[in-house]
Amino acid sequence: MDLNILSIVILTAIVIGIGFIIFSIIQFRKPEESSNNQLDKTMQKLVTAIGEADDAIEEINKLSGGVLEEINVKYQELLYLYSLIDEKEKQLSSTYKKVDISVNDISGMNTLVRAPNIAFNINNPKHKQIMDLSSSGLNVSEIAKRLNLGQGEVRLILQLGKDR
Fold this sequence. Notes:
Layout: H1 2-107, H2 125-135, H3 140-147, H4 151-163
Helix pairs in contact: 2-4, 3-4
């Protein structure tokens, strides 16, 4: 009987050992499965991020295409404006040449244009009155106000009277 009990103990020890081995294998497999699961989740996140990046790039391409079209339109407008400026420059140059020729023709005529002869007349009551007020110490603006005349007219008469 001792042999039977010994056999049972050995058999029981073997069964318990096999159970520990199976339990250990299962425990080591679970982290492997969970790391595979984490890897799958990370891959899924990467795929999602790449998809979003592709969408963003597509939107940027559309936007840049619109911006490029606007730049092209503005460039064409600038070219048109430059052509208008060139035309105006040619017109002005032509006009300038015509004016230059006309000025040369006029300067070659040797004619003198003279201002009308304005004479100071002390017998004129207005002229005498202006000279008298000036002699009494009134300035040009005071004389002009008192006689209801323009200041330029008063200055002219005073200058003509002084030159006499």
